[in-house]
Design brief:
Blueprint: H1 4-7, E1 18-22, H2 27-42, E2 51-56, H3 62-76, H4 80-89, E3 93-97, H5 103-115, E4 125-129, H6 136-145, E5 157-161, H7 169-180, E6 188-191, H8 198-209, E7 222-230, H9 239-264, H10 273-285, H11 292-298, E8 299-302, E9 304-305, E10 307-309, E11 312-314, E12 332-337, E13 349-354, E14 361-368, E15 387-393, E16 397-405, E17 413-421, H12 422-426, H13 435-442, E18 449-450, H14 452-471, E19 480-481, H15 488-495
Parallel strand pairs: 1-2, 1-4, 2-3, 4-5, 5-6, 7-13, 9-19
Antiparallel strand pairs: 6-18, 7-14, 8-12, 10-11, 12-13, 14-15, 15-16, 16-17
Bound molecules: 6-O-phosphono-beta-D-glucopyranose.
Length: about 500
């Protein structure tokens, strides 16, 4: 059944604005940002006056940059109407070449913006930091000194910041302080692209629009929760960044904590960014901070060796491009954590993420406690605990695992499931995940963005692990084969509790 039309509320075009992208020549723009802009445009969700200014080190002119983008639109924009829109929009794309730490760049930007002054969009400006993280404050300072961050009642000036937002608690705090000395919190939009994924957004709808689950969403009925973000990809061309980050920093304070907080939070008073943000932060505040001993018991790290992914041989992490030959960076991370509050006390949350794992999947599994009945103890198969499986990607949907009687004269039970697949109901539209994020930012809606407090609370929880790891070199690395489910310690984390990973 396809209910696409009846379920899509009519949305208005976003507020007119100029999008200034720092680092426009990189991968993010061609693979995700520009395709998302094209999808928005072809769905009539961009203001007519919308235009783009790109800034990067590469020595393009506006003309040669448009030529480069023409090729990229053809390659990366999938939908025909979106492609057409994207090619037409290129005449409204300007390019400035320069070094982000050079004040001349900001003078040139100001001059260019002046050229568009009569243009309705020119009052509102979104500065998108698609640049390496070390440039975040440099760019903000440059913009601030040029007077480009000042807004008034007639215009907005907003910053969109890509992760990583800091490298640890101290650097995240410092970055927040620096930015907040130049702009207000409501001018900053810290992106977590997982929040652009429909199924992540659906966690709120699922929990709070279905009266069925909320009464059992607690320690009385839930045995434990698992969150897995497994990737089959390795570090690709991002070795220089990844070898300094690792799996924990790359995935946990942001994507995994976003999902954890949406699963664990209390119902918000209303569906507003403020109330939902507050509840998410409260959920993270409830997470127990680990002692060094608990870090050793509950946190597992791993690094992939060579192996096979889909029958194809792939190299080990230490042989990848831009990775140190003796690197001790983790490419796998698993953790057991608890929340100290009425709803979740003593319910373990197991989280894990890894590169070069057996399958590519992001899933949240909620295991419910089994009933007290031994009615079916005589059956060949035991009744299995009920599982709620929330598939975030690649197949978006929700499944409830149940037990049912197997047809036949003797009483036997077996596993069955109830399935909801997004694609069955809503079709699949080519989306990058950045459409809603950009649209919301143009409209000033913070719902899908992280606050400074959320970021710092996340880092504060992880800091004890980073501290212990910084003094304990992992001599056992590499400790899992590419194409496996990670190191055996990751499995043991659950086995010692009498549980197992459920995928
Ligand atoms: C990014 C990480 O934030 O998320 C990458 O830096 C990771 O290492 C990616 O591969 C996963 O996102 P997605 O949307 O591809 O699942």
């Amino acid at each position: 059944m396809n209910q696409e039309d009846s379920t899509q509320p009519t949305r208005k075009p976003a507020e007119p604005c100029i999008l200034v992208i720092f680092g426009i020549a990189g991968d993010l723009t061609k693979r995700l940002l520009y395709p998302a802009i094209c999808n928005l445009g072809s769905s009539s969700l961009l203001a007519e006056e919308f235009r783009i200014i790109g800034i990067a080190m590469e020595p393009y002119t506006t003309k040669s940059f448009r030529q480069k983008m023409t090729k990229e639109v053809k390659e990366f924009v999938k939908d025909t109407a979106a492609k057409k829109f994207g090619l037409a929009l290129l005449k409204h794309v300007d390019y400035l070449s320069g070094d982000f730490s050079d004040p001349k760049v900001y003078v040139a930007l100001k001059k260019l913006l002046k050229k568009f002054e009569d243009h309705k969009a020119s009052k509102n400006i979104l500065f998108y930091f698609a640049s390496p993280p070390e440039f975040m404050s440099t760019i903000a300072i440059g913009l601030s000194k040029a007077g480009l961050l000042k807004e008034d009642e007639n215009c907005f000036r907003r910053i969109i910041a890509e992760k990583p937002f800091g490298h640890d608690l101290e650097s995240a705090k410092k970055l927040n302080q620096q930015l907040l000395s130049m702009v207000n919190e409501n001018q900053i939009f810290r992106i977590d692209h997982f929040l652009g994924k429909e199924t992540v957004q659906n966690l709120l709808a699922f929990r709070f629009s279905n009266g069925l689950f909320e009464p059992i969403w607690n320690r009385q009925y839930i045995d434990h929760v698992q969150i897995t973000v497994a990737e089959t990809l390795g570090v690709e061309l991002r070795g220089a960044y990844y070898d300094h980050a690792g799996a924990l920093r790359d995935m946990v304070p942001n994507h995994i904590f976003q999902m954890l907080s949406l699963i664990a939070m209390e119902p918000p008073v209303s569906f507003s960014a403020q109330y939902i943000g507050d509840e998410k932060v409260k959920a993270l505040h409830a997470v127990q901070v680990l002692t060094p001993e608990q870090v050793l018991e509950r946190a597992v790290r791993g690094q992939y060796d060579s192996g096979k992914i889909n029958h194809i041989a792939v190299p080990g992490y230490r042989s990848e491009k831009n990775i140190a030959s003796e690197s001790s960076t983790e490419t796998y991370f698993a953790l057991k954590l608890f929340l100290d509050n009425w709803r979740w006390l003593d319910v373990p949350f197991y989280i894990r993420t890894g590169k070069r794992m057996k399958v590519h999947t992001t899933e949240i599994i909620v295991q419910f406690k089994s009933g007290p009945s031994s009615l079916f103890s005589g059956c060949q198969q035991k009744a299995k605990p009920n599982l709620l499986r929330i598939y975030i990607q690649p197949d978006e949907g929700i499944t409830l695992d149940l037990n049912a009687k197997i047809p036949g004269p003797s009483l036997q039970i077996g596993p069955v499931d109830m399935k909801f697949k997004y694609s069955d109901y809503f079709g699949i539209k080519p989306q990058t995940g950045y459409e809603t994020i950009l649209y919301d930012c143009m409209n000033g809606d913070h719902l899908l963005f992280s606050s400074a407090e959320m970021i710092e609370t996340g880092w504060a929880l992880l800091q004890p692990i980073l501290d212990v790891w910084s003094v304990l070199t992992p001599h056992e690395f590499p400790n899992y084969a590419a194409g496996s489910w990670g190191p055996k310690e990751g499995d043991m984390l659950l086995e010692k509790d009498g549980r197992q990973w459920l995928l």
